[in-house]
Protein backbone atom coordinates (compact mmCIF):
# COMPACT_ATOMS: atom_id res chain seq x y z
CA UNK A 1 0.00 0.00 0.00
CA UNK A 2 2.91 2.37 0.66
CA UNK A 3 4.05 2.43 -3.02
CA UNK A 4 0.52 3.32 -4.11
CA UNK A 5 0.32 6.17 -1.59
CA UNK A 6 3.71 7.47 -2.74
CA UNK A 7 2.55 7.36 -6.36
CA UNK A 8 -0.61 9.32 -5.49
CA UNK A 9 1.42 11.94 -3.63
CA UNK A 10 3.79 12.26 -6.58
CA UNK A 11 0.86 12.64 -8.98
CA UNK A 12 -0.62 15.36 -6.76
CA UNK A 13 2.71 17.18 -6.76
CA UNK A 14 2.82 17.16 -10.57
CA UNK A 15 -0.72 18.53 -10.73
CA UNK A 16 0.24 21.30 -8.31
CA UNK A 17 3.30 22.16 -10.39
CA UNK A 18 1.20 22.24 -13.55
CA UNK A 19 -1.26 24.58 -11.89
CA UNK A 20 1.55 26.82 -10.69
CA UNK A 21 2.93 27.05 -14.21
CA UNK A 22 -0.46 28.14 -15.53
CA UNK A 23 -0.79 30.98 -13.02
CA UNK A 24 1.08 34.12 -13.87
CA UNK A 25 3.11 35.86 -11.23
CA UNK A 26 1.67 39.09 -9.87
CA UNK A 27 3.25 42.43 -10.72
CA UNK A 28 3.51 45.85 -9.14
CA UNK A 29 0.66 46.90 -11.45
CA UNK A 30 -1.54 44.19 -9.91
CA UNK A 31 -0.71 45.49 -6.45
CA UNK A 32 -1.51 49.03 -7.51
CA UNK A 33 -4.83 47.91 -8.99
CA UNK A 34 -6.05 46.59 -5.61
CA UNK A 35 -4.47 49.32 -3.47
CA UNK A 36 -7.82 50.94 -2.71
CA UNK A 37 -9.27 47.66 -1.44
CA UNK A 38 -6.07 46.39 0.22
CA UNK A 39 -3.95 49.43 1.19
CA UNK A 40 -0.21 48.86 1.31
CA UNK A 41 -0.32 45.72 -0.83
CA UNK A 42 2.89 44.94 -2.71
CA UNK A 43 3.75 42.49 -5.46
CA UNK A 44 5.60 40.49 -2.79
CA UNK A 45 2.35 40.20 -0.80
CA UNK A 46 0.54 38.99 -3.89
CA UNK A 47 3.29 36.49 -4.69
CA UNK A 48 2.97 35.10 -1.16
CA UNK A 49 -0.75 34.64 -1.82
CA UNK A 50 0.00 32.88 -5.12
CA UNK A 51 2.41 30.49 -3.40
CA UNK A 52 -0.11 29.70 -0.68
CA UNK A 53 -2.90 29.25 -3.22
CA UNK A 54 -0.92 26.63 -5.11
CA UNK A 55 0.53 24.95 -2.04
CA UNK A 56 -2.59 24.81 0.12
CA UNK A 57 -5.40 24.52 -2.42
CA UNK A 58 -3.85 22.23 -5.04
CA UNK A 59 -3.36 19.59 -2.37
CA UNK A 60 -7.08 18.80 -2.54
CA UNK A 61 -8.22 19.85 -6.02
CA UNK A 62 -7.18 21.52 -9.23
CA UNK A 63 -6.94 25.22 -8.62
CA UNK A 64 -9.01 27.39 -10.95
CA UNK A 65 -7.55 30.42 -12.66
CA UNK A 66 -8.43 33.65 -10.85
CA UNK A 67 -10.66 34.69 -13.76
CA UNK A 68 -13.13 31.89 -12.95
CA UNK A 69 -14.67 34.21 -10.34
CA UNK A 70 -15.04 37.96 -10.10
CA UNK A 71 -13.19 39.98 -7.47
CA UNK A 72 -16.47 40.21 -5.54
CA UNK A 73 -16.99 36.42 -5.61
CA UNK A 74 -13.57 35.26 -4.40
CA UNK A 75 -14.00 36.22 -0.72
CA UNK A 76 -17.18 34.12 -0.52
CA UNK A 77 -15.55 31.16 -2.30
CA UNK A 78 -12.62 31.33 0.11
CA UNK A 79 -15.01 31.59 3.03
CA UNK A 80 -16.55 28.28 2.00
CA UNK A 81 -13.16 26.60 1.61
CA UNK A 82 -11.18 28.13 4.49
CA UNK A 83 -12.76 25.96 7.16
CA UNK A 84 -12.30 22.73 5.23
CA UNK A 85 -8.71 23.53 4.37
CA UNK A 86 -7.90 24.88 7.84
CA UNK A 87 -6.42 28.10 6.48
CA UNK A 88 -5.25 30.58 9.07
CA UNK A 89 -6.74 34.06 8.90
CA UNK A 90 -3.46 35.37 7.42
CA UNK A 91 -3.26 32.62 4.80
CA UNK A 92 -6.84 33.29 3.76
CA UNK A 93 -6.17 37.04 3.53
CA UNK A 94 -3.04 36.50 1.42
CA UNK A 95 -4.79 34.09 -0.95
CA UNK A 96 -7.83 36.36 -1.23
CA UNK A 97 -5.71 39.39 -2.06
CA UNK A 98 -3.90 37.43 -4.80
CA UNK A 99 -7.11 36.05 -6.32
CA UNK A 100 -8.93 39.37 -6.21
CA UNK A 101 -5.98 41.17 -7.80
CA UNK A 102 -5.54 38.72 -10.65
CA UNK A 103 -9.24 38.25 -11.29
CA UNK A 104 -9.56 42.03 -11.55
CA UNK A 105 -6.66 42.11 -14.02
CA UNK A 106 -8.04 39.51 -16.41
CA UNK A 107 -7.27 35.86 -16.90
CA UNK A 108 -4.56 35.33 -14.31
CA UNK A 109 -3.02 32.85 -16.72
CA UNK A 110 0.64 32.86 -17.59
CA UNK A 111 1.49 34.37 -20.95
CA UNK A 112 2.01 31.73 -23.63
CA UNK A 113 5.60 30.88 -24.45
CA UNK A 114 6.89 32.62 -27.59
Describe this structure in words.
With 114 residues, the protein is an all-alpha fold. It has one domain (2-105). The protein is 62% helix and 0% strand. It contains five helices and no strands. α1 (2-22) packs antiparallel against α3 (43-57), α3 packs across α5 and α4 runs antiparallel to α5 (89-105). The longest helix has 21 residues, at 2-22. It starts with a helix and ends in a 9-residue tail after the last helix. Mean pLDDT is 82; it is low at 9-18 and 110-114.
Strand-helix topology:
Blueprint: H1 2-22, H2 28-33, H3 43-57, H4 74-85, H5 89-105
Brief digest:
The protein is mainly α and 114 residues long. It has helices at 2-22, 28-33, 43-57, 74-85, 89-105. It has one domain.
What count of structural domains? 1
- Tertiary shape: globular
How many beta-strand runs?
A: 0
**Terminus-to-terminus distance:** 43 Å
Number of H/I helices: 5
Radius of gyration over all CA atoms, rounded: 15 Å
Give the ordered list of helices and strands. HHHHH
| Strand percent estimate | under 5%
Q: Give the biggest sheet.
A: none
Task: List segments where confidence is low: pLDDT < 50 over at least 5 consecutive residues.
Answer: 9-18, 110-114
- The average pLDDT is 82
- Report the structural category: mainly alpha
Helix content: 55-70%
